[in-house]
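Incident log entry.

Two folding requests arrived from the same account within the same minute. Monitoring flagged them as a possible duplicate submission, but the sequences differ. Recording both here for audit purposes.

Request one:
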Amino acid sequence: MIRSELIKKLETENVELKTEEIEKIVDLFFGEIIQSLADGGRVELRGFGTFSTRDRSPRKGRNPRTGASVEVPSKRVPYFKPGKEVRERLNT
């Protein structure tokens, strides 16, 4: 599912809301998750899962075009751990 499909689904289930209002809600929801992760926090949605970040160490990579060795700096990457209900539903 992509963002526009999510908005259309919310529109069909909430006919009293305008498309612009639903878009604002979706943007706010995702924006808050992103901001919390950027601030070093984590987001727990009970029954769905937990978003957090993990640190990746610096490493040596390789340029696939030239084969030259390239230094890849350390960075934080997003991580999602599904909740119990999501895992059970996927595996039934």
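Request two (distinct sequence, not a duplicate):
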Amino acid sequence: MMILVFDLGTSYFKASVFDETATLLALTRIPTPVASSHHRHSEIEIPDFKKAVKHLLKVLAEKLPQGLHAVTAVTFATQSNSFVLLDEQDNPLTPIILWNDQRASSMAKVIEPIESLPGFYETTGVPKLSTEFMVAKLLWLQQEEPACYSRVHRLCLISDYLTLWFTGHHVTEAGAAGLTGMMDIHHLSWWQKVVEQTGLSLEALPEIHRAGTDLGCIESQIAVDLSLAPTCRFILGCLDQYAGAIGSGNVLPGVVSETTGTVLATVVCTDTVSCARGSNIFVGPAFEEGRYYQMVFGEVSASLLEAYRSRLPHHPDFTALVLAAAQTMPKATLPESEDSQLLLNWIYENVQNYTEGEMTRAILERVAVALKQQVTTLCGIPFPDQIFCVGGAARSKFWLQLKANLLDRPAVPIDCPEPTSLGAFLLALHALSGNSLEELAKTLIPYGSPIPPNPSS
């Protein structure tokens, strides 16, 4: 059995193939094909999206001895709030408008009545909307491009469009849909009180299904066009942050995992939900009824290190920077702020004042502090017995040590270069085999050696 996973990330599109033992057989990636027609816009044209997917498949086929014909199923890990609008013939009325697109920055006041609806947080699991949410951009399009908006027949999140292309089904995954603030996360239905604010009909929105739903075989002509077997099935994937959690073994209530990447996200699995006013915890439906993921995320993350690296004239790689940090005593401290732009400004202003090792260590320590704050928000005291770590930062033993020290708990890495794709693979294998996700995670996830707290390091 071979399962192909698309990871539709903000920075990169990736495609990987795993066998039934969770061995990564092949992997390829390309920069996400973002085109900006305006300095505030962040978009992917549909032809570029399809071209990128086809390129990934072509490269994978060349890496596999049997090509793609042995692939049993296709699935995905995805971003949320990135969407495209289609007309009656399923032709695109817009590009794929990405979540980080800034065109709706003037709509803050317009979305306030939506998040002020009685029961908004309790129903949607979203504590607060921002102008980067899909709903703000829908309102902007309704206001700025009414002729286009009046022709909308379907709305697709980015992974919904992949699903529609491969299967003909207009379907969305509950976790990704939940993060739009337009869904009732308990009944897995679009919340009409929010939908009616956008001017769209419920019929324009995709059916909602849980992650891991088997949608059957991909369409026969698509199989031919993409060199996949006609028996290849399509399994509904999930939100990338939840996929990363699953790929770390975070599938039972009380388990906590973190991802340090473009954003820092901490996730806990739970079977009880509390949406207290004033909280900043996002709540979304998990892979089975009665189970949820609670998540806190922020921009104090590895993106700070990437921004610093890009300012250095010789652009050292991350390994060299972290090695320098590990050999340096702490001398710099970033401001205690969650404002990533303020932190970036401080870093840029002090580039000449500290060595690369000193500045890198300061960034790593600041992200570790942010992680502790997120774990505290999610779990309170006492902390969980251990925390599972994924993302690029989990490859750094030194960074893991800093996190373990601050949390006073072991940090457990995953010995897989693509734990997010691994999580999506496990969901698909669960759907195909009938084995429980808990058992698959227990037997197939390659855990690394836990990094215990060591205050002297």
